[in-house]
Amino acid sequence: MFVCLGNICRSPTAHGVFRSRVEQRGLAHLIEIDSAGTAGYHIGNPPDHRAVATARQRGYDLSDLRARQAISADFDHYDYIIAMDKENLSELKSICPPHFKGYLGLFLDLAELDVCEVPDPYYGGPAGFDHVLDLVEAASEALLDRIDKELN
Ligand code: 4NP
Questions:
Q1: Is there a catalytic annotation at residue 120?
Q2: Which residues line the pocket of ligand 1, CB cutoff 6 A?
Q3: Which of 2, 9, 89 to mutate to test the pocket of ligand 1 (most atoms within 8 A of CB)?
Q4: 95-137 pLDDT, tens digit each
Q5: Is domain 2-151 annotated with CATH 3.10.20.310?
Q6: What is the per-residue pLDDT across 17-48, written as a single tens digit (0 to 9) for each?
Q7: pTM (global) more than 0.85
Q8: What is the pLDDT at residue 31?
Q9: How much is the pLDDT for 152?
């Protein structure tokens, strides 16, 4: 499960990109994907139109996604709880049950990149959304390689 602050920009982008990669590798029946926000400002809303448009330019459809807030029960359902930045990670740690044995960490820590956070594009211009997609595409490939190995 991918988590950012509002669940309308970064985590739905990660959700849509990763879903597409999983489908391409024929693993959709084995991997359940979701996304959520640490905040509840946008519950029930579709992704930000800029995130939808930027993703569509690269062939990803985010139109079916709706925002929700992350809850402690998510830790009982998902093996990977993946935060876009350190602030989200800290919020998630505060609701993580002590028995959770999965991965709770930063998305970009899974990839060999020289940055560790996916920056919040909400208050910036269109270039920020392209940058989010670059980072998300790279990290999605790394995450899928890791899960693919675990499944084999
Ligand atoms: P996200 O971006 O966390 O990538 O979905 C944001 C969306 C909305 C807000 C902040 C960040 N907001 O303050 O409403």
A1: yes
A2: 4-10, 41, 120, 122
A3: 9
A4: 999 999 999 999 999 998 999 999 999 999 999 999 999 999 9
A5: no
A6: 999 999 999 999 999 999 999 999 999 999 99
A7: yes
A8: 97
A9: 87
Going from the Cα of 132 to the center of ligand 1, the distance in angstroms, rounded, reads: 13
| Structure token pair of residue 36 | 């959520």
Domain assignments of the chain as residue spans, ordered by start: 2-151
Distance 4 CA to ligand 1 centre (A): 8
Three-state secondary structure readout of 29-61: CCCCCCEEECCCCCCCCCCCHHHHHHHHHCCCC
pLDDT score of 147 more than 90: yes
Assess whether 96 carries a catalytic annotation. no
Atom of ligand 1 nearest to the CA of 132: 4
Annotated active-site residue in 10, 19, 21, 50? 10
Residue burial 15-51, b: 16+ Cβ < 10 Å; e: rest: bbbbbbbbeeeeeeeebebbbbbbbeebeeebbbebb
> How many whole angstroms from 80 Cα to the centroid of ligand 1?
21
Tokens of 101: 């044995």
- The Cα–Cα gap between 6 and 11 comes to 8
